[in-house]
Amino acid sequence: MNMKVKDPHFILEKIRKYLDEDIKPSRYRSVVELGNWKYKETSMDEPVDGAYAPDYDDSAWADFKLWDTWGGYDRVAWFRTVVRIPDEIRAFQGKGCRIALRFLVGPRDGGESTAETLLYIKEGRELLTGSGSFAVYHDDRGSWGEHVWEESVCGAFQVTGSKVVEVNRMRAIVRFFLEYDKSEMMVDYILEKGSDRLKMRLKLRSAEKQRMITYNLPVAAENPSVFTETAFLAEDKIDCFDSNMEHYQHRFADITERADGSGIAVLNNCIYGFLQAGAQYRLILLRSSSFARGGRGGLAQNLEGRFMNQGCYDYELVLIPHEGRMNKERLFAEADFLHMPVAYLGDSSHTGKEWLRRGRLLTIDRDDHVHVSAVKTSEYDRSELVVRLFETEGTGGNAAVSANGVQASVAFGPYEIKTLRLTADGWKACSMIEHF
After folding, report:
1. pLDDT tens-digit profile of 354-383?
2. Is there a contact between 317 and 248 (Cβ–Cβ < 8 Å)?
């Protein structure tokens, strides 16, 4: 279809009018000049510790003003200035809103954008009362943690350096190096495009003796509740003010405000449990006690004792902040993915018209609160397929299972677990030990 515009100049004028009178005023509530800056340029590997802190002393940095030149390849540029938040923006604080700062240093990508800093008002609430930390405690307790004889704070890992590992359109990775006494840690923080998760990769080399190393996360919850995993159930069973605060058997812990369900879910593949001190979640990373000594008190800090957890350990954590209650099925799904990541097979070379490795073993259509717990071959007949599902929210649900052209529909009661076995006669319900 061909279309002719009688007066293209008139159309362009209307567009300019809408931009100037409607769109631009909506984007900028007010404009504040940021004229005087402090500037420091470093290499990619040279840390500038604490330069992000408001009280950092930047008096030795160079002065920088608008239109000054800066930067270069593989260089890091630090800019610091004082921003006065306009009164009309500040008025939104304390009304369930946060103020976020966006800083662009343009021009970029060959466009006409210029350097600008934007303050945005974002509805929501702060989910932490402070920063996460890696703490170290003197740890004297029973062999199974049943008696806490002494637990006192020794200190915390301190940042010794940082670097940007990767930045692209899909993800960003920032790496921090930390030390405590003779122990050291490397932590990668990973943000992926379109994801609400913060991933953390930890490498910890411990030389501690009779110490406990934890990751502490102070969640903003006046009346905290913690959902952790039991068999086929996410259960609110933690006493957050128990004198013996250690809890075991968990791949996830969802620490929330009981009133509205807002909080932070923490998933991990660590080897110990966690402690809950009020609203502070403490994930136990390592515990360097002596092997089942059957006693109490201080231990000699020499080679006579056999201390646990000496050496290097690798962990992965996933933090998922959420406003409002999180679907418990997602907790199980995220934990499964962390502990059992999807395996893939490389295909052979081909022209693209025919995939040499493809196929579908099983199709499961389910409600968003029905979780698939297991898919495996039967213990009694390796030619048969077994599927186990359970309902996570206590509301009941439905699922449809299909394999080899054989289908079955399944209805679930609240928190019900069901196991299906695909036999020569079709899908049949069986017990958890696969008996009919």
Report:
1. 655 666 788 999 998 999 999 999 999 999
2. no
